[in-house]
Amino acid sequence: MSTVKILVVDDQKSVLVALQLLLQDEFDEVITLSNPNCLLSTLENKAIDIVVLDMNFSAGVNTGNEGLYWLKKIMEYDPRLSVILLTAYGDVELAVKAIKMGAVDFVLKPWDNRKLMTTIQTAIQLRQSKQKIDRLEGEKQSLTQVLNQSKTQMIGRSKAMLHLNRIIQKVATTNVNVLILGENGTGKELIAREIHAQSARRDAALITVDMGAVSESLFESELFGHVKGAFTDAKSDKPGRFELASGGTLFLDEIGNLSLPMQAKLLSVLQTRQLIRLGDNQIREIDIRLVCATNKDLIQMVAEGEFREDLLYRINTIHIDVPPLRKRGEDIAVLAEFYLRKYAQKYGKPKLSFSSKTLDKLMQYDWPGNVRELQHTIEKAVILTDNNKLMADEFLFYQAPKGSGKYKASSLADMEKEMIALALEHHEGNLSRIANELGVTRPTLYNKLKKYDL
After folding, report:
1. 51, 113, 144, 204: which could join 248 in a potential S-S bond, CB 3.0 to 4.6 Å?
2. What is the CATH number of the domain that holds 273?
3. Which residues carry this modification: 4-aspartylphosphate (predicted)?
């Protein structure tokens, strides 16, 4: 059964009953209205996809003006809605006017059931096409706009951060490929966005792909796109992330997670700057600025045969090392104050501040989850506190304070595994809460659970 919701608006009860009986077995929900004055409120409350709208509601009136009036209101509310007009009076001029205003089709009463169903199916396809186009455009626009306030988001006054900002400013003005290296949570994606925001491509899209969340079976489809019929669920043509980023910047996060076959396919496209959608034979040119990031040691992976040396050279024209937060401790208080102000405003607690002991505690903690852990820790504290000051005992850390010598983990991987294990216990296996707490996506969390056999 389709998940489409249809609204039928007609002043004749017999028409409403007939259409309800005809459509209810084919669609998820069929809603009927005899009074068009309730139309807009129904659209707001019911997430309607298709509207079947009568042209005349007043007795003795057959001009169709009422239908055109409500058609205009519907189009103003949501131009993606598919509207089919019903009338007992055939008028070619009226039909043309309705189509120009945004109607999908014009059906005469009494209708032929088979033809009406065909018209509705066409309207559904049109609605879905409009939604898909909007989603793709929305993704490009939102990713372009996020963090476009260059330099305001790179927070810190340590020598390491000042040096990092100078590198970003130099690199951003070029078109070279950039590899960003650093631990989880250090802000690698933020740096990629900053490079894009300061580049000549800033007005085009920045498209981000979490390579750790892309399965091998979907790799080509997600990155290079596919055409209708390329595989079972390919019901329409779809551009991949490379095409969406063309003219702008493509950020491939967690690139160290790619398998060797996936690396080979990626390398081919990067070398030629051309791609072929899955199931197609048309060569498409792409124009991207490539930025990659990973927390893995790619040189060691090359030595062990786990990462292609030619791919490493291709993505590593310039590499940027992002220092962990524990190595730029003077930035901790600055970042803590920034996130406190941000979340105090967001959650309606503008007078909130840190106690002196709290800042000392934050400064003494090693932040194995880096800036991301600090951000989530401050947000959680702001949400839960009932005080005007955030007190030291409101902060519970997974690790020992800086310099205590009580680490259980002997490596970064051990530390990550320990954090995930503690989060699993703390949140009683709730993966959504754990992913939010650790600042990762659910697919990334699944991969890490599998990696560490948790």
Report:
1. 204
2. 3.40.50.300
3. 54
